[in-house]
Every structure is written in C-alpha cells, then in structure tokens.
Design goal:
Ribosomal Protein L4, Chain: A, 2 domains, 6-stranded mixed beta sheet, 7 helices, alpha/beta
C-alpha cells in the first residue's frame, strides 16, 4: 500500500510503501477492545487501602454487662460500629492488571495502525522535527496538515523542539516510535508518523 509523504510545511516529499500486513488489515474491534482494557487496567495503581478490624489495635474487654444492658453484647472495640474501629469490607491493595498474550498485543497494534490507514486518518511526514521550539509555528504546520486532534510519532527519540512546542496545544500528543501504543493511537483522530517511525514500527511488528 502506497501513501504520499508530506513535509512539515505541507509540501509533498514523495511516497512510502506501507506493509499490508501492518497497515492493510481489516480492523477487528474485539482485539482493539481487549487491548484498550488491558492498558487501562494495567495503569490503575491499586494501592488504596484502609484499616479493617484486624489492622486496628483496640481493647478486647467486654463492653458493658453480658445481660441487662439493653444493647448488643460487644466484646471488641475494633469493630466498625465504634469510633476508631476498622472499616468493614474496605478497599485493599490489589493488582488490577489482566493477562493478554504478547502476540495478541502485537496484533492489536497492527489493527490500530490499519484502522487509521483505512479511515484515511494517517499522515506520513518526512521528518517530525522543528527548527525552533515555537508553539505558533507548530499550530500553523498542523493547520496545513489538517490536524486538529492528533498523535505525532517521531523516530527513536522525540525532537526536543517539537516536544516543547506541543506542550501547550490541546488534543495533541507526541511520542517516540518505541512508545506507540493502541490506546493513544485510538484516542486521537489523526495519526502522524514520520518516515523513521514507519520503519521502526514495521521492524518491531514483523
């Protein structure tokens, strides 16, 4: 599959051959859904915890008489009914992550890239870099490319000027090629790849 390559100023810079096994698949929503769930579950911290009855040190002396008090026969001050007692069934430290085979994760990334290519929401640029870290310059470039909500994936390392210029622009993310992931690709409307990013992704997913 061939796609035109443009420069950051909007001018054409030839074309690039995209691997049909990565950019030409029929997107499967079930695989993409599983991958997004996997990513969102994995990034949950799961370190929230409260003190339950066994974590609170309180008296175990019987509170009041066994009979004749007219109240429940409590024998422990750590229960949740008393001030300072433990919380009943509170949150505990846990791992929210779910298992997903490595091959399925790689396939999901292929389907995410294919989804953008099929929907004509994929732009390949010659080089994802700026000569100066100016947000106003990047806004003009994005207007020429027709990007209002997008993800820019550069080469092995993100260009510093591009990264700094993009900080103050809403609905725009910048990632290195190694950081390309399904959730961030699907979250934005337009995917902008540099030629180096295309090469890196194809080498990573072949």
């Amino acid at each position: 599959m061939k796609l035109d390559v443009t420069k950051m100023d909007g001018k054409k810079a030839g074309s690039v051959d995209l691997d049909d096994g990565i950019f030409g698949l029929e997107p499967r929503k079930d695989i993409l859904h599983r991958m997004v769930r996997y990513q969102l579950a994995k990034r949950q911290s799961g370190n929230h915890q409260v003190q339950e009855r066994g974590d609170v040190k309180k008296t175990t002396k019987r509170i009041g008489n066994q009979k004749g008090g007219g109240t429940a026969r409590h024998g422990n001050g750590a229960v949740s009914q008393f001030r300072g007692g433990g919380k009943a069934h509170g949150p505990r430290t846990r791992d929210h992550s779910i298992a997903l085979p490595k091959k399925v994760r790689a396939l999901a990334l292929k389907h995410a890239l294919s989804a953008k290519a099929v929907a004509n929401e994929l732009i390949v640029v010659d080089e994802a870099a700026l000569s100066a870290a100016k947000t106003s310059d990047l806004v003009k470039i994005l207007a020429k490319l027709g990007v209002t909500n997008g993800l820019i994936i550069g080469g092995t390392a993100v260009d510093l000027n591009l990264s700094q210029a993009a900080r103050n622009i809403p609905n725009l993310d910048v990632l290195p090629s190694q950081g390309a992931n399904v959730y961030d690709i699907l979250k934005r409307h337009t995917l902008v790849l540099s030629k180096q990013a295309v090469q890196d992704l194809e080498a990573r997913l072949k």
